[in-house]
Design brief:
Blueprint: H1 3-24, H2 29-49, E1 75-82, E2 89-92, E3 98-111, E4 114-123, E5 132-137, E6 151-156, E7 163-167
Length: 206
């Protein structure tokens, strides 16, 4: 094999390694899956013991939340398309009230041969959001396997980014999935996906 070809193959391997570790945060697949399980165990502990648990006094009877087994394909690096002409929108909440948000960007990706597009919103009425964005979605599992009013994803704002990590293994239920005393914004209409996202948290109440 020519030296030039060996160099080319080595460079491809290096680029692949950089992309992989950039995507995974420096974790191996096993480390990533182990971290998901640890996060879930920690959340169960919070739900069972914390005064801030949405289960309130009933938390002593809490056992565990329900989840899909984590699958790496649901950790998606989506393209990010920023919205320039921003106008405030109102989302209805579970208690009939409305919440104000500012459109931030669209995240686009392919999943199971389906093109998906999700609207990501900026939180405008919470100064303590620490640069977090709001992403609520529903999918083909909603109301059957997962909470009918949709689920949320934690998304952090990165200025100037052209892509964004959507880890659906971390998708979680809003607190109104556990108790009617909470008010939870519903997903915007464009965030109701046709594809089934069998990742993250399932329904708590059967």
């Amino acid at each position: 094999m020519k030296l030039k070809n060996i160099f080319f193959i080595a460079m491809l391997a290096l680029v692949a390694t950089v992309i992989y570790y950039s995507w995974s945060g420096g974790q191996t697949e096993k480390e990533y899956l182990d971290q998901i399980q640890k996060d879930r165990k920690d959340k169960d502990e919070f739900m069972h013991t914390s005064d801030q648990s949405p289960f309130g006094e009933e938390r002593k009877n809490f056992k565990s939340l329900n989840y899909f087994a984590p699958v790496v394909k649901y950790k998606i690096n989506a393209s990010l398309h920023h919205i320039r002409d921003k106008q405030m929108i109102l989302l209805p909440a579970s208690d009939g009230k409305e919440r104000k948000y500012l459109p931030y960007a669209y995240a686009e990706f392919e999943l199971d041969k389906e093109h998906c597009k999700l609207l990501i919103l900026e939180i405008v009425d919470d100064p303590q959001n620490n640069g977090m964005l709001f992403l609520a979605f529903a999918d083909a599992t909603s109301a059957s396997e997962t909470y009918g009013a949709g689920r949320y994803l934690e998304v952090k704002k990165v200025r100037g980014a052209s892509s964004i990590l959507l880890d659906f293994n971390q998708a979680y239920n809003p607190y109104c999935a556990y108790s009617e005393k909470y008010s939870c914004p519903l997903p915007p209409r464009e965030n109701i996906l046709k594809v089934a996202i069998r990742a993250g948290e399932k329904k708590y109440h059967e």
